[in-house]
Each structure stands twice: as C-alpha cells, then as structure tokens.
Amino acid sequence: MNEDVELEVRSLAELAAGEEIEAWHRGRLAHRGKVVSTLDGIDLFWIIDSRTGARRLLDLEQLSVRRVAPRKPRAAVGKPGPPPRRAAVVPVFLEAQ
Question: Could you say which of 3, 15, 24, 87 is the most buried, measured as most Cβ atoms within 10 Å of its Cβ?
C-alpha cells in the first residue's frame, strides 16, 4: 500500500524527465511512456508513448499518473550448464632430423 502512494504523481514538481509513467483515465490505461519534458505552472508534460512512439502532451489534472516501478532482472531460464571445458594442451616435440 505504501509503495502505491510513492508511485502516484500528485504534482508536476514530483515528475522528472526520463521517468517511466502510466497515465490512467476512468480506470483504463490511456498512455504509458517516458517523460520528455514538463511545463511548470500549468501541469502539462510531454511523453514518448511506448506503444506508438508518438510524442504526447498530457494533462496531470485530467489523468491519474503513476510512476512505473523499476523491474528487477529476471533469472535466466533453465538450469545453468556445466562450465566450459578447457582444451587440453599437448606439447608437440619435433624430432631432429
């Protein structure tokens, strides 16, 4: 619950360029993307929409905006294999002729 409060953006002062956000409208995800810039004083900010790649101007007063929590890297799929085998080094002696 406390984590949800930290992810919600209530004012433009809490938002910075480079942050990944989700913008919700009437309980539905409207936009998701990376913040490009903010327009101080009027609660507007630009994002690059991750779904379309388009630049979007969003209004903080019209949308419920949440930061996207950073994801932890997933573990590799499957079992780790044995360590790579090293080639045996065999000295080669040339016979003198």
Answer: 15
